[in-house]
Every structure is written in C-alpha cells, then in structure tokens.
Amino acid sequence: MNKILEVKNLAFAYEKDHPVLKGVSFSCAPGEYVCLIGHNGSGKSTLAKILMGLLPNFEGDVSLFSLPLDRENLYRIRAREGIVFQNPDNQFVGTTVEDDIAFGLENKNIKTEEMRALVEKAAKDVGMSDFLGHEPENLSGGQKQRVAIAGVLAMKPDLIIFDEATAMLDPKGKKEVNGVIKKLRQENPEIALISITHDIEEAYSSDRVIVLSDGAIIGDGEPKKLFKDEEILKKAKLGVPFLLQAKKAFHERGLDIPDEVDSLQKLEDFLW
Known about the structure:
CATH class of the domain at 1-80 and 192-240: Alpha Beta
CATH superfamily of the domain at 1-80 and 192-240: P-loop containing nucleotide triphosphate hydrolases
Radius of gyration: 19 Å
Strand order of the largest sheet: 6-7-8-3-9-10
Distance between the termini: 41 Å
C-alpha cells in the first residue's frame, strides 16, 4: 500500500544530550485517520513541527508523498498538505470569511469563477456558507477553526495535519470541529488525517492511535483495544475514554454493551 507519510528512526534534540524524540517510527496510509497523543513533554508538539517542515535538523528519515522531507522538496510537499493550528486567531489573513478561505487559492493564480466555486463548496462542507461575508472577529472559536479547515479543504490536499486544533476551544467549539472531521472522513475518504492531540475522546474516534511518552512510541493500534491497556495509559499519564468508563460501569451492573457500540451517540441509541 502507498504511504502518505513514513517516519523511520526519527530523533531530535533542542540541546545536546537532551533528546526530545527517540527512534520514532510509524507511517500513515491514504484515507487513514491517525491521532498522535501524549502528555505535556511527550514530544508530540516537536513531532508536529517536524512534520510541518518547521524543524529541519532532525535525525532519521521522514518522507511525505514518497518525497524526503528536506528543503529541496518542501514546496512540493506543502502543496499537498494542509495544516490547522491550535490558535484560530493566528490563522486569519483575510478581512472576511470568504477572503480567508480564498487566500491560498489566490496564491495559485486560479481563475475567479473556479475560485468562487471552490470557496463556496469548502464553506458548505464545514457548515459556514451563511458566514462568507462575516468578519473573523465576530466568529466563535469553533467557527474560526471551521473556517481554517475550509481554507485547507479548498486547496484539495492529500493530507491534513491538525495541531491541537481543539485545545483552545470550549466544549461547543470542540463538538463543532469534531463534527466537521467526522463529516470530512465520510465525504472525502481519500484524505489522510493526522491529529496531534491530548484529547482522549478525540483520539478514541480515530482509526488508529499512536501514544507518545518521553519522546518514544509506547503504543500503536486501534483505539478501542489500545485504550483498554491500563499499563500504557498509566505510563502515558492518560485517562480512560468516557465511553469505556461507561461500558465498564454498565458491565458491573449486569449490562454488557456490545463492541459495535463505539461512540457516545451509539451508546445513547442502544440505551434508549
């Protein structure tokens, strides 16, 4: 299978003899939704910066779209990947939502009619069609992140990296963004998603979770199996997803919840 991303024996240190990443290896396939999760200091933020091409002085091999991640290939790689950052206020460059979504397209010299169609479709995909004329400062945090995602979608990427994209949002904003990600996976199954997060609930909804602790991978697998490993959770200083807590509580009371109930919505439907 072709790989969108491949990382082999990646190591990095800001200071000599103080490694932040140690022998990290993993890959991501087209259409796969991978969450990289870990506590503060686990190395996930440094890994995110490397994948974005912001920290070039690493050891090991990193390739995206079969291209080595280096200065020579950086432009071609960035043309095929989109990034949604943590702080939505730092991502706006346009005076209106429409201008902001169109910004990347303008830099590609796309014709006006085609650009308008791409902007309208991207806005519709994230539920922001009614806000195209709005100024960014009048939007909520969740709405701003949805606009940021729309700007990325308009560029038709093969890979989207979410760098703690819900970390600064309230519960309503998180729900909005996670809903967009779910819709994105359904309507654009060919796009690979990598989310760097500390949100255990977000990670539980992914295809695959990679757990980082002290700069090394200590777990890599399907969420509903991996998050049952108490040793990994303890070592990574992570909590147990609410769905698994709920299933355990019901089991102790004599009610077993089937494995196919793998979301809170499905749990609610099963119970009621």
